[in-house]
Input
Amino acid sequence: MLKLMKALVSTIATSGMLASFAFVSSVSADEYFTITNGELERPKGYREWVYVGTPVTPNDMNNGKAAFPEHHNVYMDPGSWAHWKKTGEFRDGTILMKELVSVGSKGAVSGNGYFQGDYIGLEATIKSTKHFPKEPGNWAYFSFSSKDHKTVNETATPFATASCNTCHENAAADDFVFTQYYPVLRAGKGTGEEASGGHLSTLKNSYSVPKGN
Ligand code: HEC
Output
């Protein structure tokens, strides 16, 4: 019995355990995302995070080919939302998901407009001093969308700073995030429990027109 145990222990020590230690050191499971060897795994469950807004850049207003077609449903992880309500800042470890949805129809019984069709892509941005110490603002940008926007990839690597981060740094209203287009974030910034909706103070906030527009 003792002999068997010893053999077992030495087998685990030399093969399995060493391998699993090596594996653990390259995986970083943060609260709402996992980065393994520099690759972000496609996050799951974000449609149940906090919804912050839906910008829309329809193809027919962008020479038939919007850079990010077409509706962009944006969600923020709940831990970072709690921090935003309390402090009005994006915490270290914030993740925002932007899910692309086609224009499915341009008319409804309510009138003419742009109505959501099918899911056609998925992008993400993460603020992390640990993972992105050299990126401006510590924000990195990812895309899971396939080239033809017909499927999404399992993992994504960060884009070069000039591809995404630079425009966000220059044009976004609040710490690289386009809060000027997200009423939920604007109205809820640092307002504590009133951020949850229905309170007069935050209703007023969300109706104010952002600067520069
Ligand atoms: C020319 C400027 C510009 C560039 C370049 C750009 N973005 Fe953005 N991005 C925007 C604007 C404007 C919004 C908000 C409005 C919208 O979605 O249309 C936005 C919103 C986002 C959001 C939602 C969270 C947020 O920060 O507001 C994500 C995620 C995102 N972009 C990812 C990317 C990725 C990935 C790239 C690089 C492939 C990229 N962006 C390049 C302008 C840009």
